[in-house]
Amino acid sequence: MTDLVLSDAMAHARRRLDAALDAAGRPAGEARLLAVSKTKPAGLIREAWQLGQREFGENYVQEALDKQAELADLTDIVWHFIGPLQSNKTRDVAEHFAWVHSVDRKKIARRLNDQRPADQAPLEVCLQVNISEEASKSGAFLDELPALAEAVLILPRLRLRGLMAIPAPAEGLAEQRAPFARLREALEDLRVRFPEARLDTLSMGMTADLEAAVQEGATLVRLGTAIFGERHRPTP
Ligand SMILES: *Cc1c(COP(=O)(O)O)cnc(C)c1O
């Protein structure tokens, strides 16, 4: 991908987000763009950074660490870990990311808390929800959220910020909106239960369903293909 194509794609993605916010009657800037760079080379992330993008999402720990090392001079990049998280990878995530969107069980949360270095800010956390209740998918079920949120809120090195979901693919705006509405309601419920927590993040919406997610209150949309083009290796 040449510079020109990336800058076009980035401008188009920003316009698409602005238009979705406008159509939803929401103020410009109320949702921000997370550029999902999994499988894409560090050089492309650098180009996106030069175009003003600062927040990037990665799914694979080792791949992310390699790219972070190459981009160490870009000190204001904010790295988000958005992939499935196994216990043996929590230390790398705790040490090398600002955010993690895929916390779905207490054991992972406790490990991240224990491994977050003392000289770094608390790790910003979203709980991943299996919103379409798919048997093989990661994420906590809705009825597990209050107990999981309570457990995360007492961990001092984590800061619970909200919820993340990847709904089952659906065609049509109404069908796409339904699971996002459930996620929004789940966050509203947590806000009532834990009024002192700063629960301000709904991480939802990808290339195929950004508009539906923004209609339902997304504050962080995770765009990969729309910014960087098709990926040529399978993703989990
Ligand atoms: C790959 C991925 C994305 C980006 O998906 P696109 O359809 O390419 O926009 C967003 N979120 C998660 C968790 C992903 O794994």
TrEMBL record:
InterPro entries: Ala_racemase_N, PLP-binding_barrel, PyrdxlP_homeostasis. NCBIfam families: YggS family pyridoxal phosphate-dependent enzyme. PANTHER family: PROLINE SYNTHETASE CO-TRANSCRIBED BACTERIAL HOMOLOG PROTEIN (PTHR10146), PYRIDOXAL PHOSPHATE HOMEOSTASIS PROTEIN (PTHR10146:SF14). It holds the Pfam family Ala_racemase_N. This is Pyridoxal phosphate homeostasis protein. Keywords: Pyridoxal phosphate. Gene3D superfamilies: Alanine racemase. Residues 27-231 form the Alanine racemase N-terminal domain. Pyridoxal 5'-phosphate (PLP)-binding protein, which is involved in PLP homeostasis. One of its GO terms (molecular function) is pyridoxal phosphate binding. Belongs to the pyridoxal phosphate-binding protein YggS/PROSC family. SUPFAM superfamilies: PLP-binding barrel. CDD domains: PLPDE_III_Yggs_like.
